[in-house]
Amino acid sequence: MKPHLRVIMFDLDGTLFDTAKAIISAFRATFQQLKLPEPAHDEQIRETIGLPLERAFAQLLSQAEDGQRVTDCVEEYQRQFQTLILPMAAELLFPGVAAGLFQLKQSGFQLAVTTNKFARSANALLIASGIAGLFDVVVCADQVKDKKPAPESGNNILAHYQAVAEESVMVGDTTHDILMAHQVGCQVIAVDYGIQHRTILAAAKPDIIVSSFSDVVNWCLLRGLRSTS
To answer: Is position 11 annotated as part of the catalytic site?
Structure first.
């Protein structure tokens, strides 16, 4: 018999929050403020969403991650995030997320976040949107040595709950989330309403791909209410 599902780990951008357009705007505002050349197409920025900020800016600027220009971009982006994204945090929640998380919490699941955002931004977004109280633990990029897709953040969450991988599931919208889950050894739900297309997600072999947050909730409720053989 497999153990009951009890720990659900969530990504933020593209999974709980529809932040793609706002993030692209914040990236462009960063380039403009620092008088740096901007990517020609929004898709170039979109493809970096989910990466640690240092890696995203390094990729877009063809610079080293530890270079001063990248550091300046990360700092300016944090300022733009506070101005452009935080004020509309509640509006950025995908349909059904707030109610679905509350239902899962009320059903006894332990909810956590693993994100490649910095802690300051991630926690501010959760608080501003009104859902911070639903999560017991939030593991961010600046709280681990190795960021997603490395398994460190997922393993830290399991250690917090004294849970085994078989009792947990990762919910995310990119291959970074799927690959992290595979390394942790837990199940993984990919959502195709976020950053990456369904075909890209499928190639990384998640347990299931769903198209709405209500599908996530229903999948978890089914596996949390009974053991499977």
So the answer is: yes
Q: Specify whether the backbone of 52 is left (phi greater than 0), alpha (psi in -120 to 50) or beta.
A: beta
Q: Which of 11, 66, 72, 207 is catalytic?
A: 11
What is the CATH T-level fold of the domain 19-88, as seen in this structure?
DNA polymerase; domain 1 (1.10.150)
**pLDDT per position as a tens digit, 36-54:** 999 999 999 999 988 889 9
What does the DSSP 8-state code read for residue 11? -
Tens-digit pLDDT profile for residues 143-194: 999 999 999 999 999 999 999 999 999 999 999 999 999 999 999 999 999 9
DSSP conformation letters of 42-81 = HHHHHTTBTB-HHHHHHHHHT--TTSHHHHHHHHHHHHHI
Same topology, domains 7-17+92-224 and 19-88? Answer is no
Q: Where are the beta strands (DSSP E) in 119-176?
A: 137-139, 168-172
The percent helix, strand, coil of the chain (3-state, each to 5) is 55, 15, 35
Residue 146 annotated among the catalytic residues of the structure = no
Closest C-alpha among 218, 212, 189, 10 to residue 95: 212
pLDDT of residue 200: 96
d(CA 158, CA 163): 5
Active-site hit among 13, 72, 142, 177: 13
Report CA-CA distances (Å) from 16 to 25, 34, 97, 189: 19, 30, 6, 13
- Paired with 13 in beta bridges are 17
